[in-house]
Amino acid sequence: MKKRLKIKLTFFYIILFFFMLLFWYYISTFCGIYRNTQLKLFKATLITFIITMFFPFIFCMLIALTRKIALKKKSRFLFKISKFLHHF
Question: What DSSP assignment string belongs to 67-80?
Answer without folding.
Answer: HHHHHHHT-HHHHH
